[in-house]
Amino acid sequence: MRVDPWKVYDPSNIEQGNQIAQCVLNFINDPLTLKGTKSQSTFENALPKINEYTVLSGIVALQGKTVEKTLKKRKTNTMPQTYLLTLTTGLKVLPAEKIHTQSRGRLLHDMHAEILSIRLFNLILLEDIKRINDCSDNDRCGKILRQNRNGLFQLRDSTIKLAMFVTEAPCGDASLENISSRSSSNVDWKDEKCGLEPIRGRSFFNRKGLVRTKPGRRDSQKSLSKSCSDKLCMKQFTSLLNSTTFSFIDPAYRYQFYLEYIVIPEESISPVDVQRCFSDRLNLDKSETNIQDYFHAFKILPTELPDFPYQFKLNNSLNACATSLVYSPVYPNMLEVINKGVLNGRSSKKHINKEASSQLCREALFERVAELNSNCFENIKTYSNFKGSIKELRKIKEGAKKIFKNWGESTIDDFTIRGES
Ligand SMILES: [Zn+2]
Q1: What is the mean pLDDT of residues 202-225?
Q2: Of 21, 24, 126, 189, which one has the fewest beta carbons inside 10 Å?
Q3: What are the sequence ranges of the domains in the chain?
Q4: Cα(171) to centroid of ligand 1, in Å?
């Protein structure tokens, strides 16, 4: 069957959607790599309690191709192998004011499950690069990456495709239908102006195709973090790679690091919303820049799996779980529980100690880069200098922001680089 390249929702591939979702859910039911370790209770305690809900996400590697076979005149598919790379939960975000006054690279701004999974994916790549650099054998292979002759990296297996599973439609433009159908009063928030800045959270939910910030309670402090819909949409231009990993990857193989699929429970998908959010609003065929050359569209696949083992769906009659779980079975030492932007149990008031910060915060990820590539200090005094030095990624992001029209500013979270000189 020919698939329309601009069609975002692909219900015909539900079998693949179920396989990806199952890979993530299997691990929740049976956390194999943690069995019998002290970490197992940490993992289980971070899952929502009986009166709580959260959102679950995971990035899955699909290895091998789908092969159509005819067995006794019946067509069946041999599915690719699946490997779970990341598993994260969460639905909280920090106010811009807190980040601005306290963070200096040490707070996690955005603890929505999808975004944590993407940060964790980048951390895994950095860890893999470190292991390959440290080992003396000739095959130059880590758990996910392989080093090419030019010193840059690609995926170890060229058949691998990356997919994400989320238990809810991403917040923002891809889930506007869900908001308006759930909103009890059905009254729009009408006290804000619309302009070139992103729309705040759930306000103006009748205005479609626009960049929004993370939803929050109406009385909550303002966050400038973009919605998951917008951030995931941006990943169609930039790939999953961020400033810390982008330069390590061989440009000839960068295509391997884009998401191929995002899997969402069937009942949470609004085909109209996802089509507009991830494709139509970008107007790429009319764009005058060459930014569309970087664009790799993903498909939204449904899953029809029965009940989840925990409350991984938005549920107004339960409390929102305050903590986020961060775990990678690829590197089982990467287990963290996050609360208010720092490790659970640590203080996030006033000064943030290094020991309180997550391995996923800006400072920790940057320090890994500095360890791998000491040249990255040249002419660089601050974290924002470092981000600016990844020129091609900047160019892609700036080009894409223009396409979104009202992307607006992000929270400044800069810090001086201490390893300098
Ligand atoms: Zn979100």
Answers
A1: 80
A2: 189
A3: 11-404
A4: 4
